[in-house]
Every structure is written in structure tokens, then in C-alpha cells.
Backbone:
């Protein structure tokens, strides 16, 4: 079809068990105040998203238990201030994100599996404000969960593992804000969390680990701010946290199970020139060569 396989314009039907493929736009499109329930559909090989949601804060469909794969953009995409509930879907092998949100969208993204997408499992940009809870993001070409473009994100209880760059990544922006609570971020190829300039990130109660490898577990770049509270860091790279930015580190546990074969640096916190560090006495450091090292 020239547009979507199934399209909604201010209509709110129940859409169940359809197969939508090879459409010029989305497999299923939802817009213009629609509150459709889209459940159990298969959307693949479409030139845009498998399921696309856009326009207006009261465009509030429920998108659940769908399979969206091998689409030319996202598996499920939402933008233009739409506010869907996206839950328990499987989004994989898409050309961009498994689930992508942008342009002020405010989705609630719960319990999805996003894997083997060419870019990120779940991506946020363009001042989007997603709530991202209980998803599993793995084996994606870039980050498990990736954010850019002044988004305001909340990440809770997600599991990000075996992605090819970061488990959770923040690309350079002007004024992004993120809260990261109780996530499990393990065995990603580069860092568990990478925070570029423009971001203010509050991380609390997370498990951040990787076996072996040289990179730090967390990298905070110049121009970024991060607060770390009650996280558990486990690894043996050059550092648990390597920072060029401004960081506050309170009541965390740093564990290094084995000395790095290359020797130092191997520090719980490695502060580079120009960074600022507040490192509280209530942090626990085990196995690292030094707790904090500065320029």
C-alpha cells in the first residue's frame, strides 16, 4: 500500500492478529487523537516503522504483544507529542531502533524485547520524554538504550546486555536529563554507560559490570554531569568511572575481581584534567589499585 497497511485518523478500533508488510509507510499507522488497541500483529519489511504513532498528546493507543522486525526505520516509532503505551512487544532486526521516540513524544515503554537492531534497542531524541521500564535490550549494533537531542528520559529496571557499544548511551546534546534507577547493565562491548556533553544524569541502584576488557565501566565526557548513588560496579578495566566532566559519587560499591594484565591504570574513579569529583567516604572499594586518582 502507498501509505500504511492499516491506518487510524481519529479512530480507535481494536486491531488484532493482522500481518502488515512491504508497505510504503508504516505497517500500522496511528495518529490524530486515535486511542486504538493494537495487539498481536506482525509488521515487517515496511519502508518506515512497523508501527508508527504520531501527532498530539491525546493520541494514546495501546501497542502490545506485536512482532515488528526488518523494517527500514524503527520497529515501533512514536513522535510529534504522541503518548502511547508500548508494552510486551518484540522488535528486532530493524534498520534503526527497535523502539524509537522523538519530537516531544511521551510514550510509556514497558516490558519489550528489543534486539539485533542495527542501531539501538530503544532510542530517544528530539526532546522526547519517555518512561522506559522493564525492557530487555540486547545484541544491538550500537547501544541497548540510546538517547540524544535534549530528551528527558526515565529508565527503570531495564536489562541491557551484549550490545556492541554501550548498554546505555547518551550522545552529545545541549540539555538532556535522565534518571536511571535499578537497571542491570552487563557485558556490553565498550562501556556499561557512556555520557557525552550536555547531559545531566542521576544513576542509583544499578548493577554495572563487564568481564575483562580495557575500557572503563562508565565514561563521563567533558561537559556532562552525573551523580552515582548506591550502584554496584564490577569489572577490571582501566577504571570503574573515568571522567572528564563533573561527578558526585556516594555510597557505591566498587569491585575489581582480578588485576588488569596491563597494570595501571586500574582505578575505581579516574578523574582526567578539567574534571571535578566529589567522592564520599561511604563508598566501598575492593580490589582496585586506587580509589580515586586525579591529574
Residues:
Amino acid at each position: 500500500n502507498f501509505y500504511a497497511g492499516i491506518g487510524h485518523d481519529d479512530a480507535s478500533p481494536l486491531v488484532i492478529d493482522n500481518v502488515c508488510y512491504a508497505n510504503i509507510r508504516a505497517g500500522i499507522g496511528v495518529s490524530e487523537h486515535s486511542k486504538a488497541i493494537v495487539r498481536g500483529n506482525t509488521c515487517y519489511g515496511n519502508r518506515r516503522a512497523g508501527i508508527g504513532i504520531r501527532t498530539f498528546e491525546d493520541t494514546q493507543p495501546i501497542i502490545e504483544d506485536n512482532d515488528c522486525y526488518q523494517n527500514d526505520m524503527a520497529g515501533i516509532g512514536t513522535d510529534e507529542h504522541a503518548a502511547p503505551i508500548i508494552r510486551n512487544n518484540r522488535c528486532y532486526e530493524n534498520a534503526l531502533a527497535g523502539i524509537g521516540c522523538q519530537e516531544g513524544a511521551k510514550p510509556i515503554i514497558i516490558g519489550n524485547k528489543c534486539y539485533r537492531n542495527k542501531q539501538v534497542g530503544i532510542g530517544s531524541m528530539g526532546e522526547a520524554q519517555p518512561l522506559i521500564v522493564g525492557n530487555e535490550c540486547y545484541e544491538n549494533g550500537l547501544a541497548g538504550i540510546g538517547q540524544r537531542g535534549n530528551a528527558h528520559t526515565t529508565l527503570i529496571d531495564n536489562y541491557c546486555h551484549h550490545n556492541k557499544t554501550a548498554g546505555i548511551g547518551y550522545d552529545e546534546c545541549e540539555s538532556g536529563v535522565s534518571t536511571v534507577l535499578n537497571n542491570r547493565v552487563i557485558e556490553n562491548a565498550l562501556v556499561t554507560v557512556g555520557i557525552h556533553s550536555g547531559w545531566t544524569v542521576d544513576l542509583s541502584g544499578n548493577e554495572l559490570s563487564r568481564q575483562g576488557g580495557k575500557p572503563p565501566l562508565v565514561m563521563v565526557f567533558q561537559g556532562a554531569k552525573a551523580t552515582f548513588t548506591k550502584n554496584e560496579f564490577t569489572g577490571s578495566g582501566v577504571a570503574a568511572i573515568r571522567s572528564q566532566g563533573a561527578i558526585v559519587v556516594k555510597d557505591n560499591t566498587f569491585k575489581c575481581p582480578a588485576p588488569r594484565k596491563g597494570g595501571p591504570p586500574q582505578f575505581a574513579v579516574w578523574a582526567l584534567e578539567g574534571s571535578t569529583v566529589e567522592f564520599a567516604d561511604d563508598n566501598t572499594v575492593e580490589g582496585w589499585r586506587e580509589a580515586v586518582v586525579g591529574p
